[in-house]
Amino acid sequence: MGASESDKDRRIGRRALLVGGAAAAVGTAVLARGELAHLWWRLPGVQKPRVEGAVDFKGALWVAASSGNFRTADRPDDYAIDRVIIHVTQGSYASAVKVFQDPAHQAAAHYIVRQDGDVTQMIRELDVAFHAGNREFNERSVGIEHEGFVDRPQDFTDAMYAASARLTAGVCGRYGIPVDREHVIGHVEVPGTDHTDPGPHWDWDRYMGLVRRAERA
Fold it and tell me: pTM of the predicted model, to two decimals?
């Protein structure tokens, strides 16, 4: 005796449910494998392979910061980069390097730009530097320190402005960051910060003009 139409519908419905469930399980497994492949280096004791001494800005000097002052990451895959944050060291270049190499300092930027225009990279851009005093902004930004003091306009030299502008233009180009004051900001503009740098003597109009010019070059 043949099955009724309702019985056939139930069997077809059950088969479709099983097939759909199997497909969903396969899809979930593929997704899980993809996530695991992406995150394998986050397991305890595992670090993503790095090229020792590699820099992200051509011509920069590599001087490694203490691992206590940044967090290894895989940006922009795990955290999108959409900001450049401008800092001033409130001290000499040598003092900035010293504190960034001190694990007790608990802070460091990706770069330091000297008054003579030389650039030092201390943390890779793919890693999260503790520079902004705000976790979200740390995760989404590249921090650039500038040698000098906020109350000394003479510390912001022509060579410093030019080198920093090329650096910022390169960062913006790599990550598709718009070259504007919403995306290139001072430390003082980070929510929750108590810092005032780069201070009133930092010439934002001049700087942004140099960044745009470097971006077009």
Answer: 0.80
